[in-house]
Design goal:
By secondary structure, the chain is mainly alpha-helical. The chain has two helices and no strands. It has one domain. The longest helix has 21 residues. The protein is globular and about 40 Å long.
Length: 74
């Protein structure tokens, strides 16, 4: 991972993310020069929404705004 990278991981359930998935996320952050964020969602089979992409489409732009705001005011 890049030295200036920040990793934040929050697990709000007993769903365990395999280390291979975490490494894939970390690897995708090291490609290219632009700022990057990885949003990962894991659901229990019975709790998975029919279209989890909708959640990412909502959360992603909000996260981007928060990061931009931190850079401006940080």
């Amino acid at each position: 991972m890049v030295a200036s990278a920040v990793e934040f991981f929050e697990n709000r359930s007993d769903v365990q993310l395999p280390e291979m998935e975490m490494e894939a996320a970390r690897s995708s952050l090291t490609r290219g020069g632009a700022q990057r964020v990885v949003i990962g969602l894991a659901f229990k089979r019975q709790d998975r929404p029919s279209n989890p992409g909708i959640i990412v489409d909502i959360v992603g732009p909000l996260l981007g705004l928060a990061v931009d705001r931190l850079q401006v005011h940080g």
